[in-house]
Amino acid sequence: DADVTQTPRNRITKTGKRIMLECSQTKGHDRMYWYRQDPGLGLRLIYYSFDVKDINKGEISDGYSVSRQAQAKFSLSLESAIPNQTALYFCATSDSFSGGSKNEQFFGPGTRLTVL
Amino acid sequence: DQQVKQNSPSLSVQEGRISILNCDYTNSMFDYFLWYKKYPAEGPTFLISISSIKDKNEDGRFTVFLNKSAKHLSLHIVPSQPGDSAVYFCAASAPNFGNEKLTFGTGTRLTIIP
Lengths: 116, 114
Fold this sequence. Notes:
The structure holds two protein chains of two kinds. In chain A, 0% of the residues lie in helices and 56% in strands. Chain A is built from no helices and eleven strands. Chain A has strands spanning 4-7, 10-13, 19-25, 31-38, 42-51, 54-57, 64-70, 73-78, 87-94, 106-107, 111-115. In chain A, strands 2, 4, 5, 6, 9, 10 and 11 form a seven-stranded mixed beta sheet that branches. The radius of gyration of chain A is 14 Å and the shape is globular. The radius of gyration of chain B is 14 Å and the shape is globular. Chain B is mostly beta strands. The mean pLDDT of chain B is 94.
């Protein structure tokens, strides 16, 4: 079973609709992240959460909101989707206590979102 | 302002030869660098990393070199294999009291030609 799962994997929606993307992890990590990938722009951070009660904006948070329902769950919402939010969205996790590779993040398989 | 840059969007290399992927950065506070590999329809996976106190880190066929004075790092893959065909992202982080985040480059698509 995958350690970081994202649902849905693909979604087509219309402008103005509310959309929620969900992320779950079984790695026991405390930190979770949402990124979007656009061609030619790489991965850009939308929101991140270092624990259940900690939510922070990333570099491109406008038009998005998040909820950390539990340590294992982090959801991303688009309150009113617009076409330029069409992108590939990735959830990631990391462990602040691992002592391993510093800030190594583990990614889910991605959600391809199309806003018409 | 792109703090981490990968100026080559794509690279093609013959199987068995060396692949060299490059990454430049502008933020002198970055002290840790990572390379991720991404296959289609999958999330990025961690490949190799290097701390700014080192200039080289090696893991099997993969070696990362860091030139701090030039703010440049490179990933060498020797020998290149068809399974290495993927998009490679460079990422960097700066010290932030345990709250480090990653800044990613735009990626380089590597194609290994059999």
